[in-house]
Amino acid sequence: MVVSVLEEMRIRSLGVIDDAVVELSPGFTAVTGETGAGKTMVVTSLGLLLGGRADPALVRIGAGKAVVEGRVTVPADAAVAVRAEEAGAELDDGALLISRTVSAEGRSRAHLGGRSVPVGLLAELADDLVAVHGQTDQQGLLKLSRQRQALDRYAGDAVAVPLAKYAEAYKRLRAVTAELEEITTRARERAQEAAMLRFGLDEIAAVEPRPGEDAELAEEAERLGHAEALSSAATAAHAALAGDPEDPEGIDAATLVAGAQRALQAVRAHDPALAALSDRLGEIGILLGDVAGELAGYAGDLDADPLRLAAVEERRAALNGLMRKYGEFDRGIDAVLAWAERCAVRLTELDNDDERIEELAAERDALRAELGDLAQALTDARTQAAQRFADAVTAELASLAMPHARVSFDIRQSEDPDGVEVGGRRVAYGPTGVDEVELLLAPHPGAPPRPIAKGASGGELSRVMLAVEVVFAGTDPVPTYLFDEVDAGVGGKAAVEIGRRLAKLAKTAQVVVVTHLPQVAAFADRQLLVEKTNDGSVTRSGVEVLEGEERIRELSRMLAGQEDSATARAHAEELLATARAEV
Question: Which long-range contacts (CB under 8 A, 24 or more apart) does 200-204 make?
Fold first, then answer.
């Protein structure tokens, strides 16, 4: 049962296509047409809907922009629908509307469910919607990394679980190794830093500054520098308040206030208001006495010692030197003490380098041992899956007119003295393990297994790729498969077998195939013709659903290049009848 179906696409001003609607079947849809008619634009359009790179050269000459719109039915609880709704998209009667616009200037915009979204979101959804395969994908299958990915995908959790543990340990090992290298390679720099910090801390410790000491000394220096003036002012103020013993006739403030109070004291009983004023004069007299006493004590304690002033200035100079070198001058000595505290912590870190190096080295060795064990488990899981995978692909090749072909995997490791130990050997390792995985093909009995890059022709490679995808469909199904000329280099009986196998795949998934082969097209549930016409000035392409007589004429053209050839028509009718009987 197909859970998601690409119902249709509308293509406007893309390449040779002016305005066309591609109506797709839930099962097997074949897209045919003359060379150059624009069949590959169907693949290109789907690629744009799936977040592919926007090339302004694709915009039709004379048009300002190219637009591709798609309608995909998806269950409301499907991962694609959930992710789309998280992005603000809305479903339209169970369908997700996707739009991509490419301007002639190169600007690209994407819309999902009526909401503007980043193009990257379309690419994110693509993995759960469509698997696209074309000639470039066949070349991709030749890469060892892609072959390993294919095997891992087939193995499922048997590889995914140990691979996740391996990846986590590998990431930690990289971090530990990087830190260890950083510490050891920068040992000289760190030693110089430690020496500088130690010198600064020793210099501060020699001065032994106290918090706020600079402010205290500034006040004392100001006082000592003006000691004579301060003493003279205090003595004069004291005399004004309490009198001068050397001038018995002098009048002082205390005597005057006392006289004022005595004058009021005699009559205070006659008026409470005057009594209150008399009391206040009494309080003033007491306050004057206190101030006079403090002034006398201040003048007596004031030290005008020049030696003390010199000592204070010397101490301030030492503190100022520290503030200029190790702090912020306007923040005072407290900034120097804060610097010393930070540097003491940093110096402890630097002094503990040897211990840290030992810790990191021990952790590195432990992680390498753990990585070796995980790599062995990963290799074992891949080896077991490889046999099943190879057997399944070999069985599929038998259904694709390659009955004697045999597929196998070569899983090997490269020795590296600095690598991890696996099976008693030191081997190179990477983020995905220690294995180099290569797909081998023996196309006929007696032929040695060779890498598919060397042992498979173009047609054989197409069939190997199709067989791999069919095997995947049984373990990790994708709703829609798009094959762009997967039958290239194939003909005759092999083409019939490919058509038959694609029809079988279409029973569990939506299959769209761009093909030149009538043997493949005949097995399709729906055949679309991309037809180009030329009115002398503008080339337009349309996409037409072929039925009945029109489909026979197109199959005849594909068979013999002549739509009205009786022999070709008979062959076309036979192909359709055979396909319908089998499907």
Answer: 200/325, 200/326, 200/339, 200/340, 200/343, 201/340, 201/343, 201/344, 201/347, 203/322, 203/325, 203/326, 204/322, 204/326, 204/336, 204/337, 204/340
Q: Are 334 and 212 in contact (CB under 8 A)?
A: yes
Quote the distance between the C-alpha of residue 501 and its chain's center.
40
Q: Residue 537: what pLDDT?
A: 44
User: How many whole angstroms from its chain centre is CA 72?
Assistant: 28
pLDDT of residue 2: 43
**CB contact burial 330-355 (16+ within 10 A = b; e otherwise):** eebbbbbbebbeebeeebeebeebee
pLDDT tens by residue, 202-246 = 998 998 998 988 888 888 787 777 777 887 787 788 778 887 777
What's the pLDDT score for residue 255? Answer: 81
Give the DSSP H or E segment for 70: strand 65-73
Q: Please state the length of the chain.
A: 583
Q: How far apart are CA 62 and CA 14, in angstroms?
A: 11
Closest CA to 435 of 411, 409, 410, 408: 411
Q: Which of 533, 575, 572 is nearest to 16 (CA)?
A: 533
Q: Is 144 exposed, middle or buried (0-12, 13-18, 19+ CB in 10 A)?
A: middle
Strand (E) or helix (H) holding 387 = helix 353-398
Q: How far apart are CA 48 and CA 52, in angstroms?
A: 5
Q: Give the Cα separation of 309 and 312 in Å (integer).
A: 5
Q: Report the sign of the C-alpha dihedral through residues 78, 465, 98, 525, in that order.
A: negative
Strand-pair category, 115-117 with 108-112: antiparallel
| pLDDT attached to residue 486 | 67
Tokens 């290298």 belong to: 181
Distance between terminal CA atoms of the chain?
A: 16
Residue of 467, 480, 478 whose CA lies nearest to 25: 480
Beta strand pairing call for 510-514 and 480-484? parallel
State residue 317's pLDDT score: 87
User: For residue 442, which of 457, 456, 459 has the smallest C-alpha distance?
Assistant: 456
**CA angle (228, 229, 230) in 5-degree steps:** 90
Residue 462: strand, helix, or coil: helix
Contact between 79 and 56 (Cβ < 8 Å) = no
Collapsed DSSP state (helix, strand, coil) of residue 61:
coil
Give the residue ranges of the chain where pLDDT is below 50: 1-2, 536-538
488 torsion bin: left (phi>0), alpha (psi -120 to 50), beta (else): beta
Complete DSSP assignment for 148-202: HHHHHHHHTHHHHHHHHHHHHHHHHHHHHHHHHHHHHHTHHHHHHHHHHHHHHHH
State which amino acid sits at residue 517.
L
C-alpha separations of 119 from 67, 73, 251 in Å: 14, 20, 98
Helices (H), strands (E): how many in the chain? Answer: 20, 17
